[in-house]
Amino acid sequence: MKRKRIRLGVLVLTTTIVLNVGVVADASAATPFGTSRWREPRVTYVVSGSSHYRSVYAAAIRAWNSTGQFRFVQGSSAHHQVTLTTSNSTTGQFHMLAGITFTTAPRNGYYSQAKVLLLARNLSTYHYTTADQIHVAEHELGHVMGLQHSTARNSVMLANNRYNGISHNDVTAVRKRYHTPVGRHS
Length: 186
Fold this sequence. Notes:
5 strands; Collagenase (Catalytic Domain); alpha/beta; Peptidase_Metallo; 16% strand; metallopeptidase activity; five-stranded mixed beta sheet; hydrolase; 5 helices
């Protein structure tokens, strides 16, 4: 089973390097962020899925909200910016991922909506504990806020992360993201 976990991490990291510009080179460097962000460091969300995954998302939201740098506020089915859900897909682009985030940023550079999928079948297949799943949700919420992948070993934004929670550098990056004008990055 360890062989599968190592293979998963290498595949995801390789994909990350190809898809994301600005990967941090050392463990002490700041977590990078992209050019897009929300107008304010606050979004509304809705959650769907089993009670287990609702609690995973709730724990990840509490962790980010407790940093004081960004606020996730529960919305309604009619009025929300972010959808948090699960998928059992294990094919195509999802075949070995633990989670994935889709964001929409019109030409003005501000996000207008986002969708996060925790890939339940893969989380089960690769024996992610509840704590691991919470870290994956924290990672995906980092993307929702505008953070990119980091190679810092202690960052929640490490591409193949399942063991790290939110680091000081991750919190600093969120603060900087929302004090840096849209269109500019770290």
